[in-house]
Structures are given as C-alpha cells and as structure tokens.
Design brief:
With 306 residues, the protein is of the alpha/beta class. The chain has eleven helices and six strands. It folds into two domains: 210 residues, Nucleotidyltransferase, domain 5; 53 residues, no CATH class. α4 runs antiparallel to α5. It starts with a strand and ends in a 9-residue tail after the last helix.
C-alpha cells in the first residue's frame, strides 16, 4: 500500500499572480510512514522548527524587517522575534495611512511568516535545503507532478472544456500514480490519496475521483486507488508539508529556472527506463528547455507538449 500526499503551488485563476499552477503527490510505502515522519521531525528540530508547520512559500522569502534590525544574526531567538515584531508594528502603523485594506493585507502576510522570524534568511534556506535533501534520500518514495503553464491552451475533450488547470493537474497525478501502482502487474498493489484540506475544492475533487473510479481518466482505468481523497490538516501532517516543498520548488523551476533546490529531490520523481515519467510540464505549443522538458526531448518527445 502506498499513501500519496498531494499539495499545490501557485493559483488556479488564469489571472492570478503566478504563471504556473503545480500539483505534486508524494507517495510513500505505508509501512515506512513512521520512519519517514520521525526523519522529518528530526530535520525540523535541527533547524529550530520543531513545533512549526513547514509552509515553504512563507519561509523562502526575505523579511525586510530583519534587515533593519542591527546585529540581527547575533541576537538570541527571543530577542530576534521581539525586534522583528517591533519593526512590523511600525510598518502596520504606516500602512494605516493608506487605509484598512492595506493594514489587513500586511497583517495577514505577517501572521503567515511569524513562525519563522526567529531564523535569518540564510538559516531558513538551510532548513529548506536539509528538508529537500531528506526527501531526495528516500529511495522507495515516489513523486508525481504536473506543472501547468496557465498561458497554454488545453486541447481537451468536450466534457473537459470548463476544466481549470487544477482539474487537469489532478487527472495527471491520479493517472501517473495509478500507472506506477500497476507497473508490475500486481493487482494487490494499492494506493490512496491524502490531500491538504481545502473546503473550496474538497467536494469537487471527491466528485471527480468518484467519476474516475467509474469511467477512468482520459488515459487509464483507475482500479488500484482506493476511495476518494482523504482531506487532512497540513499543519498536523508532515508528508503534506513535504509535498508542498516539492510543489513550490517545481514551480520555481518552471517559472524562474531555479534548479538548485529542485535537483535535491528530482531523483524521486517516478522513472521508467531512465525517462522521468512522473512529472509533466505542460506548455501547449510553446517550446521549453527546462530540465523537465529536455528530459523528454532526449527521447524524441516535443518539449512541453507531451
């Protein structure tokens, strides 16, 4: 039995602030869950993050308030937090001059990053590097992903005409995970999906999966994935947080050609005969030379179009 933990990076809305929407599933053998959960916890503890949720999008950014604190790197953790909170209080007071909306937006951003202000930017980066390398070291784990360039036009069946980038990505994850499960022809090789809870999409994904069980995806009959996705609180589920990490850095690769962090866990994407079949970068008719697409071009496929 494999448990596949799924999380996303970017926004589905074509007019949203990211050019890509990325969905990644991290599948681990059920009997290794405890071992990997302990390894994840140990990694967090090494970087003073033992009681914090890993939310990569908020950890990976710079906090200008830290740069304004003299000698920040030499301060004890408690003094760092107090100094940053003082700077942020000043920023919110300035934002009040622009109106309630500005205050609300800034306060929301500060709340998201507050669990990490005791670490400098370099310390947060080191923690993320360690987590990415830990994931990359799990030889029997498999990653499945779909990176959708939202500017690309989808060629889909009529019943999929109104699908979002998230819908297409979900179908890809389900298909690739199921293909992995059935590769050896063992009918007892089963899997289940675990999703970060999102009330806005949980009902839709549940209904979509029920239809996949009945009619299959566009590419395969789905017989080896049990039930519909289980939805969990990501703050309490370590493997969802690692799926978030993989999704975030896959998106950074596709959008900004940032390879270094992606390379740390790239070997975990499912492969067959040397081909990275677990990950797709959909770009429509646009040619792409990223790591993902060139991997397929070397074997005769069109870049970004497969």
């Amino acid at each position: 039995m494999y448990i596949c933990y799924v999380d996303e990076s970017g926004v589905v809305d074509p007019a949203g602030g990211t050019s890509h929407f990325v969905l990644v599933g991290l599948a681990i053998p059920a009997h290794r869950w405890r071992e990997y959960d302990l390894a994840f916890s140990a990694c967090k503890a090494r970087h003073r993050l033992a009681d914090r949720e890993i939310h990569v999008g908020w950890m990976a950014r710079r906090y200008p308030e830290q740069d304004r604190v003299a000698g920040f790197d030499r301060l004890p953790a408690a003094d760092r937090v107090a100094a940053v909170l003082r700077e942020r209080k000043i920023d919110i007071a300035k934002a009040a001059l622009r109106g309630p909306a500005a205050v609300k937006s800034l306060a929301k951003n500060y709340k998201k990053s507050e669990p990490y202000v005791h670490l400098s930017y370099l310390e947060r980066t080191a923690a993320l590097e360690d987590l990415a390398s830990t994931l990359g070291s799990w030889s029997d784990a498999r990653l499945f992903g779909d990176a959708q360039d939202k500017r690309a036009k989808q060629r889909a069946r009529k019943e999929r005409a109104n699908w979002t980038a998230g819908d297409h990505a979900f179908e890809q994850i389900v298909t690739r995970f199921h293909t992995f499960l059935t590769r050896d022809g063992d009918p007892a090789s089963m899997g289940m999906l675990v999703y970060d809870h999102d009330q806005a999409v949980s009902t839709q994904l549940t209904e979509r999966m029920r239809r996949f069980h009945v009619a299959g995806t566009q590419y395969a009959k789905i017989r080896n994935i049990v039930e519909t996705p289980f939805f969990v609180d990501s703050s309490l589920t370590s493997m969802i947080q690692l799926a978030d990490l993989a999704a975030y850095y896959t998106r950074r690769l596709c959008e900004n050609a940032e390879e270094e962090m992606f390379r740390r866990f790239e070997p975990r994407f499912d492969r067959l005969n040397g081909l990275m079949v677990g990950l797709r970068h959909f770009t429509g008719n646009r040619r792409c030379t990223c790591i993902i697409c060139t991997n397929h071009v070397r074997r005769g496929r069109g870049a970004g179009t497969y």
